[in-house]
Design brief:
mainly alpha, MetI-like fold
């Protein structure tokens, strides 16, 4: 006789329930997408929740206006550079820190781990004002240096996940590489780093979603007159007398959402593997 599986598939009722919940969560995004194709005068309190018609259809004109005005391409470049540099720095530094924590058993390594975990529960509002002053004094208020600040705020989750996965890597593999003549850096980059791929992708995607969509930290740190990221740019779609250009704003929001959605869809299976490996193993 075949042994029954211990994991049961969800019933039809639960499937319908989660489908309805997912649709409710997607509803605001769908409305933003529909409104991005409407004429400006059709996006009102009453008409915002109506489907586009032949009279209100604007085509791609809102997207053209969003890209051509307000410095969209420049803001896109700033957001892209900040995201790539911050995530790369987080992955490199935090993975090496987690390797040190799991391989060197000392009071210092334990203290570093506890501080990283503690940083995840500290509200950002507690440090936002002192952070702004510190960033100005240390000249971290530019897109080229803000990655150092993101490293500090992203280290907690990254070190926690990397440490959980590091504990599952057999120490004998690293010892064998050391016997073959590898120094610590060679052991890390040639042995440990390739094994970390699932967790690297998982942490990378999670940190990318956070940095790309972040509005508060760049607003506090960067010089708003000189540098604007994409989330900061969205609020500047205003016309004369305080009128908000709703059509181009909706188009800009969709252009902001699209890259991160594509990244998430391409890497979602790696996210689940990395989270499970970092939280359970060890």
């Amino acid at each position: 006789m075949k042994q029954r599986s211990a994991v049961r598939a969800p019933g039809l009722g639960w499937t319908i329930f989660f489908s309805v919940v997912s649709a409710l969560y997607m509803y605001p995004i769908i409305m933003v997408l529909l409104n991005s194709f409407k004429e400006e005068n059709a996006i009102t309190t009453e008409g915002a929740f109506q489907l586009p018609t032949a009279a209100t259809w604007a085509g791609l004109s809102n997207y053209v206006d969003a890209i051509a005005s307000k410095g969209f391409l420049q803001s896109l470049g700033y957001s892209l550079f900040i995201t790539v540099s911050s995530v790369a720095l987080i992955l490199l530094c935090c993975s090496m820190c987690a390797w040190y924590i799991t391989r060197v058993h000392s009071l210092l390594s334990r203290l570093i781990y506890l501080l990283c975990v503690f940083s995840m529960v500290v509200p950002f509002q507690m440090v936002m004002f002192t952070l702004s002053q510190t960033a100005d004094r240390l000249h971290l208020n530019t897109p080229w240096n803000i990655c150092i600040i993101y490293l500090g705020f992203g280290a907690g989750l990254a070190v926690f996940m990397f440490s959980g996965f590091m504990k599952s890597i057999p120490l004998e593999i690293e010892e064998a590489a050391t016997i073959d003549g590898c120094n610590p850096l060679q052991v890390y980059f040639h042995v440990v780093f390739p094994i970390l791929r699932p967790t690297m992708i998982s942490v990378g995607v999670l940190e990318t979603m956070w940095v790309w969509n972040d509005y508060l930290l760049p607003t506090l740190v960067l010089n708003i007159k000189a540098y604007k990221t994409i989330p900061m740019l969205i609020q500047y779609f205003r016309g004369s007398f305080g009128r908000v250009e709703m059509g181009p704003m909706m188009a800009c929001i969709m252009l902001t959402i699209l890259p991160i959605v594509i990244v998430y869809l391409l890497c979602q299976r790696h996210i689940i593997k990395g989270v499970v490996a970092g939280a359970v193993k060890g």
